[in-house]
Amino acid sequence: MSCATNCSLFSAIGTIFMLFVATLLTHQPFFIGGIDDYPQARGAAYGAMWAYIVTFSISIVLGIREAKLQHRESVIMRSNYGQVPTLDIQNYEVGDLQDLPSSVDEGIYTTEGVFT
């Protein structure tokens, strides 16, 4: 997984969690102890939620950009399919064909005696 995918996943989870915390601070603040100023805490939770939303949006845009770049690279790589690399072999010879039957030298190819 790419960095953009991980960031978008964590930001989505963070957005949902901060929305839960902000809703809890708005409707039932007595479930969260140790907070002296509930309006300030609620504002901080909504601020963190918006920060996660911005991070999520940026990571989605970068993920799409990265996917387009990878697609472009794969198209470029596929366009080079017709180029065969050279092997730099010098003086390549087949060798002596003395082991072949005389019918091959004459160009007579039969299946006689092959399938019996």
What does this structure look like?
By secondary structure, the chain is mainly α. The chain contains 3 helices and no strands. The mean pLDDT is 81.
Task: Please supply descriptive tags for the structure shown above.
single chain; 116 residues; mainly alpha; 3 helices; 61% helix
Give a brief description.
By secondary structure, this protein is mainly α. It has helices at 3-27, 38-78, 102-106.
**Category from helices, strands and their pairing:** mainly alpha
Global outline: rod-shaped
Unreliable spans: none
Write down the overall mean pLDDT: 81
Main sheet characteristics: none
Strand content: under 5%
Helix content: 55-70%
Number of helices: 3
How are the elements arranged and paired?
Elements: H1 3-27, H2 38-78, H3 102-106
Helix pairs in contact: 1-2
